[in-house]
Amino acid sequence: MRAEQLNAILRKLSATSGEVEAAAIISTDGLVMASYVPEGIDDDRLGAMSAAMLSLGERAALELGRGELEQVLVKGKKGFIILVHAGPDAVLTVLTSQTARLGLIFLDVKRTAAEVARLI
Amino acid sequence: MHHKILFSGPVGAGKTTAIAAISDVTPVVTEARARDRTRLMKPHTTVAMDYGVMELEGGDKVHLYGTPGQPRFDFMWEILAEGGLGIILLIDNSAADAMYRLRHFLDAFDEVIRRTSLVVGITKMDLAPTPTLADYSERLEQAGIRAPVLEVDARSADDVALLIEALLYTIDPGLDAGDPRAETAQ
Ligand SMILES: Nc1nc2c(ncn2[C@@H]2O[C@H](COP(=O)(O)OP(=O)(O)OP(=O)(O)O)[C@@H](O)[C@H]2O)c(=O)[nH]1
Ligand SMILES: [Mg+2]
Predict the structure, then answer these.
(1) Which of A27, A94, A109, B175 is the most buried (most CB within 10 A)?
(2) Taking CB atoms and an 8 Å limit, are B32 and A27 in contact across chains?
């Protein structure tokens, strides 16, 4: 089952770093395909917000001359939100703690997105 | 002067189409391929917002924002409604539950509607003649709202211009918006 494979990929991502608190794979129109999220986060909400932010990020990057979108990064006082494309029709969203070492996480996120893209 | 107007309403009502029809510039769109039931109706759906601009005869600019229609994106409704002069609700008359959808959007935008102005545009009346405009007016009255209800085709720039004129007139009866299309029509 594809959903199981996607879930396994997300579990692997969260296992490589304790700083990853949640991760989800979402269709570009905001439907959750697989998610690994703690209590207290509504994954339908996470899905819709991810699709909206990725889409706006994509338009802004192109229209303001920054080229094709590579990632959207949001920094809050309690941590980061990282959004990347996982193939043309899906989004990978990762929530981290505020102590996350971004360089390492970016690598993991990129590798995970590529893995997801191959699967869907 | 800058004005901001919001287009909202259910999936497929024609919000993205209307803004594209009337905007003086290529609109900003955030369309994604539809994976849910929407795809039975159309291939793409708005996930964040539409944005276009229209210049009025006197040089005033109207900024046009469109919301996504799907309830899962309702957080964008609030964000986009901020600072708007008024709201244009588009309703797809060919949807089986068109009346119910109107109610849903009246409820969702209740605060904005009471604070600003509302115009309702009924689309796709060429595909479904009922409910009628009178049916919608009656429903609005029941909700205690007075607002113009117009039949429009979202693909027609003239029809969309009429909606905007009606809204600007509702906001300020003394305001002479002129024909918003006058410049581009020449
Ligand atoms: N026949 C007919 N088609 C119309 C009319 N108005 C709009 N349409 C069509 O209806 C569709 C509306 O699609 P969109 O503009 O994407 O709808 P939307 O309201 O932006 O939908 P979401 O963003 O998914 O919520 C388009 O294919 C239009 O061509 C009308 O009056 N008659
Ligand atoms: Mg749209």
Answers:
(1) A94
(2) yes
